[in-house]
Structures are given as structure tokens and as C-alpha cells.
């Protein structure tokens, strides 16, 4: 029999032994912020320790707790957006594939992460796969949807023409078939303006990396046909978008209930659906997307591509005749019944939509009338910005760069100017990220970055940087893009890995009706949470939940929080672009 004192002394001995080899684990801490998915062997790898007194760090093997790398922390000062001190733990020189964590004496251990050759493949596919879960008008069988399987919701085959959209040939109450499409977000409505940038972003991803996507398999019903799966998924939304065009070429702003549904599954959301007034923004976003669809689907489905081009031209022509029909829900509700109280996507300035649509039509047709209409010279004097649903002209620049070899020679000087524009924008982001941001992120370059859907700003910054990288092959742009990905996956003000189903500190309660109502503990995977937003527009429905207004910390993982924890197709799409363009560039099979 072994005596108690002997057990104690063996225990003591082994503690001494482990300490000598630094083979022990401390408590996991939130004070070390690191990408909880991980890194490529040959990429920059930096974690941030928010304790200003810490001096050194260890990278440890997650299975054995053995130290594999030792480094000195580099103090970077306070990050004004989270009001935290940043001490950089740079372990870029450590390149061995495996599972690790960072350990800082007297501070604690970080959440684990991996170093792998295809680190962003699974998460990138999951974020693209989110769109499958957003499909309206179809069952999601377990074969594809796993434990999130659900019956079909919103057939949308008998949608009513709202009074605001009535015409002589389609009077109020006419029923149209407008099925399919992706639900916009946590709600079940379908909005053309937001579909515009979302669908474009994914088509641009395919257009830029066709080889990568030609072999990328998704777990969707169409994955045995000969078409790349990403194009099959996008087609689900394009098929719906096409139905949103009225006979005169104009495009309905949205397909919606009168009010947001409660927290019910799609199949239980049976309120009447309407198509609402045609607007210039919707028509132009539609025109741009359909012109891109023509290019992208030409090879695999010529008939569909031609239909898209015709639809694009008709929507553009309608917009030329109806230059400023903007969406103002309040004004509309004064004139027409029933009242509509869902997402507005109300954009008062459509000059950028005009430019974008004209650019895409020019690329599709090579017709000078579109390049003139795009008024490229004027465009180039305009302030170009990071794209979002209301600011879309920079998307046209991405397309010009991508298609520059197919444009007529007389357009080449413009191509050169467009290159400069993209590089200038990317330089601003990169320089700020590398030299000015204590948390090494482009977020914060503009004060408005921490707003509703701020995580999509980080993703769109990354997308812009990847476009500049593809154009120039300058490694600093790729590094800066990956740095923004690090931000989204854990190296941020809250320590959350903001994509559901990934990381250790996970988003568990997104504002997403199916995830709220399905009885499954884990939310649908692959969804990017909207992210920190000190605007806290949902404070009224999340009473007492917020603990701070510090910009990069103003996030709550609560279902009530539609202003920080909703998900949306236009937020996921740039994340998908970021993760998979990086994977297509750096990933090694
Ligand atoms: O993403 C939109 C954000 O820019 C706006 O500030 C906000 C309020 O109008 O609306 C967001 O979009 C929501 C849309 O209106 C309805 N579906 C959910 C979207 C994400 O919250």
C-alpha cells in the first residue's frame, strides 16, 4: 500500500519536475487575444497581451504543454478603441504545423489555435455554407443541414403587389411568383439593395479565383452537377432577384412582411408577403449584379447569362428614366396601405449606384455608351470609399481591375487611374494597420468604423486589401488582410471569435430567427456576428445587458441584440471573400 505522505511527495516531485521544464498549464485568460482558428506556417503570427506589466511569452504545444517558442513582448501602447494596453507577442518565426496556445507568466494561457497549411479552408467554406441555411422556399434536409435541418419556409410563390408598386398591368394585390433567394439576415425578408453587394461580392470571389472554386465542394444539393458549387449557391439568390423585376424594367425594393416575424422557424412564419415600390437604388444594384452574372455564368449557362444581361439593360434603362426614386418608408406609409415596418435600406444618394451599374454594363458589353454614362473621369475625381450596401462604386473598380485585359484599348488610361485608386485606398488601410493601430487592425482608420455591422467593415477592409494584393503582389497588403482576419477571429476588443461554430470563445446567441427557434443549442455555423457597435440602437430591447460603450467592446452575445449580434448576408459575404481569397492565395494542399 502506498502511504498518503508518499503520494504527496510524488505529487510535489512532479510539480517541481514540470516547473523546471515549464510544462504546466495556467488558467485560460481573456487577456491574451489571438486568432482562435489560427495561422499558416509562413504567415505573420501575432497575439496581443493586454497586461502592460507582462514581459515575455511562451508558445506551448496544446497536447503536451511543452514550450516550443519563447519571445519577448513588444509594448505598443493603448488601443484607443478598446482602451486596453497592447503588448505584442510575435511568434511569426515559429512555423511548425500543430495545435498551440500562448502562455504568459502571471497572466494566464490563451485559447488554443492551430498552425496549418489550409487554416482558412474550413471556416471559409462554413461562411459560404451559411447561405445554404438562409435559403427561402426549400427544405433543408439533414444530409446537407445536419442538426439544423428544417422544413421549407416562405414559398413566396404568391406574393402580393403592394399598393406602392401597383401598375396598370400589375394592380395592387396581383400575385407574383418570387420564390427562392436568401433571407437577408436574422429576419426573413429579402431586400434587393442588400442582395446587390452580397451577391456581387461572392461572384467577384469566383471571378478572381476560378481555379480554386472549380474544385471547391460544398455540402449542397447541387454538388453533383458540373457547375462550381459556389455558382450553384449564388444562383439560388439570382433566380429570386430576376423575379423582382417588373415588366417595365424597374425593380422592387424588397419582398417583405408588413412587420418583422417573431422568433419562429421559417415554416411557422406565415404572414402575407408583399413586393414593395420600385426604386432607383434597387434597379441599379440589380442592373450591376445582372451584368456581372452575365460574365460569370456565360460559360456554364449561356441562356441564363443572356437573360441576366437583358434584365440588366432593362433595369438600367428604367433607372435612366427614373433617376431619383428613393425609398422613404415613412413617406410611403403615409400614402399606401398596409404600412411596412421592416428593413429600409434607404439610400438617398444613387450616384455611386449609377457609376457601378454603368461600369458593369460596360465590361459586359464593351459599348461606349456605358463607359460614357459611367462618366469615369468624374468618377475618378469622386471620393471612393470602402464599399457597404449604400456605397457601391468601389465595387465597379474591383471589376475594372479584374477585367482589364478584356477592355478596349482606349480605356487603358482609365484602367491605370483605377489601379492607383485601389492602391491608394489599400495603402491607407495598410499603413494604419501596421503603424498606427496598437491592435494591428485597419479598424479605426475612420471614426465611423465601429457602427452597425462593424465586423463587415473589417471584412470589407480585408477584401479591399486582397484586391490590392492581387493587383500588385505586394506582400504587405496580404499581411494586412490577414491581420483583419485575426481581428475577426479573436484578436479584438472582446476576445470573441466572431464566426459561429469556430474558436473557443464562441458566439452562441446570435440574433438569427432559425437559431433562436430551432431548439438546437449551437447556432447555425459559419455566421459572422455584426460586431461591436457603441450606437447600441437595441438598448431598449436589451435592457441592462450592455456593460460598456467603449467602441470595440460594445458587443453582447445576446439574441436581443440586433445592433451587435445579428447576422446578415452582406456581412458574411466579405468575410467569405476574405477567408477564401486568403486560402486560395496561401493555402497549400
Ligand atoms: O445593415 C443595416 C445597417 O447599416 C443599418 O444601420 C440598420 C438600420 O437601418 O439596418 C441594417 O440592416 C438590417 C436590415 O434593415 C433588415 N435586416 C437586418 C439587417 C441587419 O441588421
Strand content: 5-15%
Query: How many strand units?
Result: 15
CATH architecture of the largest domain: Alpha/alpha barrel
Q: How far is it from the N-terminal to the C-terminal residue, by CA?
A: 55 Å
Q: Which CATH first-tier class of the largest domain would you pick?
A: Mainly Alpha
- Secondary-structure content class: alpha+beta
Q: Provide the number of structural domains.
A: 2
CATH topology type of the largest domain: Glycosyltransferase
The helix content, as a percent range, equals 25-40%
Tell me the major beta sheet.
6 strands, mixed
C-alpha-based Rg, rounded: 25 Å
Oligomer: single chain
Query: Globular, elongated, flat, extended or rod-shaped: what is the shape?
Result: globular
Give a quick set of tags describing it.
589 residues, alpha+beta, Immunoglobulin-like, Glycosyltransferase, 2 domains, six-stranded mixed sheet, five-stranded mixed sheet, 18 helices, globular, disordered N terminus, binds ligand 9MR
Describe this structure in words.
This protein folds into two domains: 30-115, Sandwich (Immunoglobulin-like); 121-491 and 569-586, Glycosyltransferase, CATH 1.50.10.10. It is built from 18 helices and 15 strands. Mean pLDDT is 94; it is low at 1-22. With 589 residues, the chain is of the alpha+beta class. The strands form three sheets. Strands 2, 4, 5, 8, 9 and 10 form a six-stranded mixed β-sheet that branches. Strands 12-11-15-14-13 form a five-stranded mixed β-sheet. The chain has a four-stranded antiparallel β-sheet with strand order 1-3-7-6, with no helix packed on it. The protein has helices at residues 4-20, 121-133, 142-145, 192-208, 210-214, 229-243, 280-297, 302-321, 329-335, 351-365, 368-374, 376-381, 393-402, 412-436, 454-472, 475-488, 513-517, 569-586, and strands spanning 32-33, 38-39, 46-49, 56-61, 67-72, 74-79, 84-90, 98-104, 108-109, 113-115, 159-161, 175-176, 190-191, 254-256, 274-275. It starts with a helix and ends with a helix. Bound molecules: ligand 9MR. Ligand 9MR binds next to loops.
Amino acid at each position: 500500500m502506498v502511504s498518503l505522505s508518499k503520494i504527496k511527495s510524488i505529487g510535489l516531485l512532479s510539480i517541481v519536475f514540470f516547473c523546471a521544464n515549464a510544462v504546466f498549464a495556467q488558467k485560460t485568460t481573456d487577456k491574451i487575444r489571438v486568432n482562435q482558428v489560427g495561422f499558416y506556417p509562413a504567415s505573420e503570427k501575432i497575439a496581443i497581451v493586454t497586461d502592460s506589466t507582462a514581459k515575455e511569452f511562451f508558445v506551448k504545444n496544446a497536447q503536451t504543454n511543452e514550450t516550443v517558442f519563447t519571445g519577448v513582448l513588444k509594448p505598443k501602447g493603448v488601443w484607443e478603441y478598446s482602451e486596453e494596453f497592447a503588448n505584442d507577442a510575435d511568434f511569426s518565426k515559429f512555423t511548425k504545423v500543430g495545435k498551440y496556445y500562448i502562455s504568459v507568466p502571471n497572466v494566464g494561457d490563451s485559447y488554443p489555435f492551430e498552425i496549418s497549411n489550409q487554416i482558412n479552408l474550413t471556416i471559409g467554406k462554413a461562411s459560404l455554407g451559411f447561405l445554404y441555411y438562409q435559403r427561402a422556399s426549400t427544405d433543408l434536409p439533414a444530409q446537407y443541414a445536419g442538426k439544423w435541418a428544417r422544413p421549407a419556409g416562405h414559398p413566396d410563390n404568391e406574393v402580393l403587389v403592394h399598393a406602392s408598386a401597383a401598375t396598370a398591368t400589375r394592380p395592387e394585390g396581383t400575385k407574383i411568383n418570387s420564390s427562392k433567394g436568401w433571407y437577408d439576415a436574422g429576419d426573413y425578408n429579402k431586400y434587393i439593395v442588400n442582395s446587390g453587394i452580397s451577391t456581387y461580392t461572392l461572384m467577384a470571389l469566383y471571378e478572381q479565383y476560378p481555379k480554386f472554386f472549380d474544385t471547391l465542394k460544398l455540402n449542397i444539393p447541387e454538388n453533383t452537377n458540373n457547375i462550381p458549387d459556389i455558382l450553384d449557391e449564388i444562383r439560388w439568390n439570382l433566380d429570386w432577384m430576376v423575379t423582382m423585376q417588373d415588366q417595365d424594367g424597374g425593380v422592387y425594393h424588397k419582398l417583405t412582411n408588413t412587420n418583422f416575424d417573431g422568433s419562429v422557424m421559417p415554416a411557422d412564419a406565415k404572414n402575407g408577403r408583399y413586393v414593395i415600390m420600385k426604386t432607383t437604388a434597387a434597379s441599379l444594384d440589380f442592373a450591376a449584379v445582372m451584368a456581372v452574372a452575365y460574365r460569370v455564368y456565360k460559360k456554364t449557362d449561356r441562356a441564363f447569362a443572356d437573360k441576366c444581361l437583358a434584365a440588366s439593360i432593362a433595369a438600367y434603362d428604367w433607372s435612366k428614366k427614373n433617376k431619383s426614386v428613393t425609398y422613404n418608408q415613412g413617406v410611403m406609409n403615409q400614402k399606401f396601405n398596409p404600412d411596412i415596418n421592416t428593413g429600409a435600406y434607404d439610400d438617398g444618394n444613387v450616384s455611386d449606384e449609377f457609376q457601378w451599374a454603368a461600369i458593369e454594363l460596360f465590361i459586359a458589353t464593351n459599348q461606349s455608351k456605358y463607359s460614357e454614362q459611367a462618366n469615369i473621369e468624374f468618377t475618378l475625381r469622386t471620393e471612393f470609399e470602402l464599399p457597404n450596401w449604400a456605397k457601391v462604386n468601389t465595387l465597379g473598380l474591383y471589376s475594372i481591375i479584374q477585367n482589364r485585359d478584356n477592355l478596349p484599348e482606349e480605356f487603358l488610361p482609365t484602367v491605370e487611374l483605377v489601379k492607383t485608386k485601389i492602391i491608394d485606398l489599400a495603402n491607407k488601410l495598410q499603413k494604419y494597420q501596421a503603424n498606427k493601430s496598437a491592435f494591428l487592425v485597419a479598424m479605426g482608420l475612420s471614426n465611423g468604423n465601429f457602427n452597425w455591422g462593424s465586423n463587415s467593415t473589417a471584412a470589407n477592409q480585408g477584401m479591399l486589401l486582397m484586391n490590392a494584393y492581387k493587383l500588385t503582389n505586394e506582400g504587405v497588403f496580404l499581411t494586412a488582410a490577414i491581420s483583419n482576419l485575426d481581428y475577426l477571429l479573436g484578436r479584438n476588443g472582446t476576445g470573441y471569435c466572431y464566426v459561429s461554430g469556430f474558436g473557443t470563445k464562441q458566439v452562441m446567441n446570435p440574433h438569427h430567427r432559425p437559431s433562436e427557434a430551432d431548439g438546437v443549442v449551437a447556432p447555425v455555423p459559419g455566421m459572422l456576428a455584426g460586431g461591436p457597435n457603441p450606437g447600441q440602437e437595441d438598448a431598449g430591447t436589451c435592457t441592462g445587458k450592455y456593460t460598456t460603450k467603449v467602441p470595440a467592446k460594445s458587443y453582447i452575445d445576446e439574441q436581443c441584440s440586433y445592433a451587435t449580434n445579428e447576422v446578415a448576408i452582406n456581412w458574411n459575404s466579405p468575410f467569405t471573400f476574405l477567408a477564401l481569397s486568403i486560402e486560395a492565395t496561401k493555402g497549400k494542399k
